[in-house]
Write a structure and sequence with these properties.
The complex is a heterotrimer of chains A (266), B (277) and C (383). Chain A has 266 residues and is an alpha/beta fold. Helices cover 30% and strands 23% of the residues of chain A. Chain A starts with 5 loop residues before the first strand and ends in a 20-residue tail after the last helix. Chain C has 3 domains: 1-32, no CATH class; 67-157 and 259-369, Periplasmic binding protein-like II (D-Maltodextrin-Binding Protein, domain 2, 3-Layer(aba) Sandwich); 159-254, D-Maltodextrin-Binding Protein, domain 2. Chain C starts with a strand and ends in a 14-residue tail after the last helix.
């Protein structure tokens, strides 16, 4: 890999268990490297620590061991050049769509800001809703606002923590499509956490599969499929199956679980 | 002779759904409470007559009492005096309580340092402060204003503290992501996020301030609705004026509450109340 | 996605996705203020206008009254005297009123309180350098080291014990086991009852004594919450006037020339401005003599005091000042040693006085002595 933009080195995270005595090791010796412009998905079962990992990379939490380097520098806190998109409620409810998206642009001149804001409103498909307030919008529209807000700050990297997790199936499909189109246009590095295997295969260049707690990286699978991804193609299904296997999950719903499987901490 | 079939009147009749009255129309907002009020007044009147009480006034006696005050030019004076004291006391309480609440809610060391003291002072009734109020402020408007201030500042501070502490952490994370300075953080994120709860605290506190006005005017001031009640009591059998004073306090309290409720309709805070039925 | 065009108070907005929530209905609500301005600006504007307006109104209506405008003496130089709306303190408003009418102004400003504790606190904090006060209370304060000096009396007699007319209490002995209300621990009424009980061969433990503010006593008697009440007038007379009270005994029957309230001033005032104190005592003495000069004067006083100072029904004061005529007396109001020694002794027995202060400690009779030659105010109310 040419000089990686994100370098995760031996990151470990342990939470002291309240009361019971045994500390909870969430992450253990996680290492990975991500190149600029890559779209990388991290998948894993619920509670495996993938969100924790993303928060560490984003600079909101400090790891107990190891370090994260972004663009060669050690991460010590959140940074304007790397914007985090949250699962829900990240949008400020007291601001209009317009003001939310322009939140990171306060230092710019008013007309320049307006131009940028309108550009991204159009890109996420919210034209006409500039003056609306978040509580008047649907969940999908709110996530669009948040994505637009992240984009308008022109970051180098966007971290996304299960951003479509609160949406319904159809909205999710739509949002994925829009995200891919945006990524194609803007060419940002995206680090995307999800529990949805299909989503990972539909979106990413690379899928990092994490194990259950204490989480390490089980597999790092490269997705070579051309975009737009065809959900019917054999390549897609093969890669999807591979990830299912890597996570120890059966493709048959309702099958008897073998001892090797079913240790997912759900 | 052509037979023209009679126009079939019995075409399929689409059943119309029953018309539901808009719960927020004029009927609901004005008529229902007026009805309840009327029933209340009637019960009051009947109750007094039935008990053959010659001390307790009927609603009509109360209205006559109010008219008597208006004739003597006292009604406006008393209402203005009480409103003045409550306004100044409440305004001071807001100016002190909101910043104090913001600081104590945000800074854990400050909260640990000052919260126990606040919780000690909070339950002390304003009436208990009357001797000290006389000592420090004498016999003037300052003493009732002080008491009203005391009664209001604690609910405001406590609800502001609670607003800050219960703020969604995701807003703070998003703000930190944009590398806001401390001042910007407070101004653009923390304060707007807490504003709905602060306004709720203000509403509750205004109600308390207005409630305390009777106690606050027990000190030797010579005007105000609370004074009216105390004075009527001293004057012997003027219970009609006592109840008239109570009625006016109640009605003005309703007006004040409705006024503050209108604040809740602004965009900056509507988002928290938007899921109310 | 069903789309509805909604007009938001003047601002046409693009279709808002209807999710079935009521926000659209709220738009049609009555109480929608115009939101063209932000919350902050509206709030600040409203607060400024309201505070300014209400302060101005308050100043005009309540503080900036005509009397203050034409006062010859600035308000802050006035000498404040505390009093309660009882007949015991009648000489205070009477002298204030007559002085105003005769000279156009007064350097004394009477301040009306509604209860004994407030009156006492105002005196203690220096707000009222002179005040009418219960005699045992003044003595107890002196014992506690407060620099208070009694200079004159309020009136003589003028107290009573009332019972409900339907009760079968006709003698002191009938009060055994009953509930009796007195104004204050330090009131002379309490000592009175103490003395009356002793005369009837009973002790304080034979009755249940409760403390209650005098204005509440008539209602309590009416509702039979207490069996007997005792305080200064006009609250006793009120029960008679309203037809449910009956006199058990008047003070003049149990303790002739009984004194209830006194006029007291701060010791510093005596030291620094004795001439003002003398002026005060002179005025009080003169108004007392005026009140006792004729029944007509008393009737006049009932009118102007009720209307301007006590805010009570004039009929009440008229009744109390005339039926019987010697119900209260406003002359011979020099503080005398033997009166106070009697109170001291009873107070010690009742447990409210320690006996550490004596007549010379808490009384300064010099001012009263100089009033003996004075005559009543020469003033009549013009019809």
């Amino acid at each position: 890999m040419t000089r990686p933009i994100i370098s995760i080195r031996n990151v470990g995270m342990t939470y002291p268990f309240k009361g019971k005595g045994q500390p909870l090791t969430v992450l253990e010796n996680v290492s990975a490297e991500i190149a600029a412009g890559e779209f990388v998905c991290i998948v894993g079962p619920s509670g495996c620590g993938k969100s924790t990992l993303l928060n560490i990379v984003g600079g909101f939490i400090f790891p107990d061991s190891g370090e994260v380097l972004v663009e060669g520098e050690r991460v010590t806190g959140p940074d304007r050049r790397r914007i985090f998109v949250f699962q829900e409620n990240g949008v400020f409810p007291w601001l209009t769509v317009e003001d939310n998206i322009g939140f990171g642009l306060r230092r710019r001149a008013a007309d320049e800001r307006e131009k940028i804001v309108h550009h991204y409103i159009a890109m996420v498909g919210l034209t006409g809703f500039e003056q609306a307030y978040p509580h008047e919008l649907s969940g999908g529209m709110r996530q669009r606002v948040e994505i637009a807000r992240a984009l308008s700050a022109n970051p180098d990297i966007i971290y996304m923590d299960e951003p479509f997790g609160a949406l319904d199936f159809i909205s999710r499909l739509k949002m994925r499509g829009d995200l891919v189109r945006i990524w194609n246009a803007e060419k940002k590095t995206i680090l995307f956490v999800t529990h949805d295997i299909e989503e990972a295969v539909q979106l990413a260049d690379r899928v990092i599969v994490m194990s259950t707690r204490p989480a390490t990286i089980k597999e790092d699978i490269r997705i070579d499929l051309p975009r737009p991804r065809d959900l019917d193609s054999r390549g897609y299904l093969e890669l999807r199956d591979r990830i299912f296997h890597a996570m120890g999950m059966s493709l048959r719903i309702g099958e008897e679980e073998s001892p090797r499987l079913g240790t997912a901490a759900v | 002779m052509s037979v023209v079939p009679a126009e079939k009147k019995t075409t399929a009749i689409r059943p119309t759904p029953p018309k539901k009255a808009n719960p927020r129309g004029a009927l609901g907002v004005y008529l229902r409470p007026a009805l309840v009020g009327l029933i209340f007044l009637l019960s009051w009147d009947v109750g007094v007559r039935w008990m053959h009480s010659d001390i307790f006034p009927t609603p009509f006696d109360v209205v006559k009492g109010v008219w008597e005050l208006a004739q003597a030019g006292l009604l406006l004076k008393y209402i203005v005096a009480s409103l003045f004291r409550v306004s100044i006391g409440f305004a001071l309480a807001t100016l002190v309580g909101v910043p104090l609440g913001l600081v104590l809610g945000w800074s854990i060391p400050a909260f640990q340092a000052f919260n126990p003291l606040i919780q000690i002072f909070r339950p002390i009734s304003p009436i208990a402060w009357i001797p000290l109020a006389i000592l420090w402020f004498g016999i003037s408007d300052a003493a009732p204003i002080f008491l009203i201030f005391l009664a209001s500042v604690f609910p405001i501070a406590v609800s502001t503290i609670s607003a800050v502490r219960n703020m969604q952490p995701v807003y703070l994370r998003a703000a930190r992501n944009f590398e806001l300075s401390r001042a910007e953080l407070f101004r653009r994120v923390i304060f707007p996020a807490c504003l709905p709860q602060i306004i709720t605290g203000l509403r509750i506190s205004l109600g308390i301030a207005w409630l305390v006005v009777v106690a606050a005017e027990m000190i030797a001031v010579n005007s105000g609705l609370g004074y009216l009640i105390i004075d009527a009591r001293n004057a012997g059998k003027r219970y009609d004026l006592v109840v008239a004073g109570m009625a006016m306090i109640g009605l003005i309290g309703l007006g004040l509450d409705l006024l503050v409720r209108r604040l809740e309709h602004f965009d900056e805070v509507r988002w928290m109340y938007a899921h109310r039925r | 996605m069903k789309v509805t065009d909604v007009v938001r108070h003047g601002r046409r907005c693009a279709p808002v996705e209807r999710r079935g929530d009521i926000s659209a209905v709220l738009y049609a609500d009555f109480f929608m203020p115009s939101r063209s301005r932000s919350l902050a600006s509206v709030l600040l504007l409203f607060a400024a206008v309201w505070l300014g307006g209400i302060s101005a109104l308050h100043y005009i209506l309540n503080l900036h009254t005509a009397e203050n405008k034409f006062a010859k003496v600035a308000k802050k130089d006035k000498f404040r005297i505390g009093f309660l709306p009882v007949t015991c303190h009648l000489t205070c408003p009477v002298s204030d009123f007559i002085n105003q009418k005769m000279t156009g102004d007064n350097i004394f400003e009477p301040i009306r309180f509604s209860s004994w504790p407030e009156l006492k606190e105002a005196y203690l904090s220096g707000q009222t350098p002179a005040t009418f006060i219960l005699a045992p209370m003044a003595m107890a304060l002196r014992e506690q080291g407060v620099p208070i000096k009694i200079v004159y009396l309020g009136h003589r007699d003028g107290s009573a014990v009332m019972v409900h007319k339907d009760s079968n209490i006709h003698r002191m002995e009938d009060l055994r086991g009953k509930r009796v209300a007195v104004p204050n621990r330090f009131s002379n009424q309490r000592l009175l009852i103490f003395r009356a009980l002793r005369q009837a061969g009973m002790t304080i433990n034979d009755i249940e004594l409760v403390e209650m503010p005098p204005p509440d006593m008539p209602a309590a008697l009416y509702a039979k919450a207490v069996d007997a009440i005792s305080s200064g007038e006009p609250f006793m007379g009120q029960t008679e006037l309203d037809g449910y009270g009956r006199v058990l005994w008047l003070t003049k029957d149990v303790w002739p020339n009984f004194i209830s309230c006194v006029l007291a001033v701060h010791e510093d005032m005596i030291k620094t401005r004795p001439e003002v104190v003398q002026q005060l005592v002179d005025g009080i003495a003169q108004s007392g003599k005026w009140l006792d000069q004729s029944m007509d004067h008393r009737m006049q006083a009932s009118q102007f005091v009720s209307k301007n100072y006590y805010h009570q029904n004039p009929r009440l004061l008229e009744f109390v000042l005339s039926k019987p005529p010697d119900r209260v007396k406003y002359t011979e109001l020099e503080p005398l040693r033997k009166d106070f020694e009697e109170i001291e002794q009873l107070g010690r027995e009742a447990g409210i006085l320690k006996g550490t202060a004596h007549f010379d400690d808490y009384v300064d009779p010099s001012f009263a002595r100089k009033t003996t030659h004075l005559r009543a105010f020469a003033w009549e109310e013009k019809p």
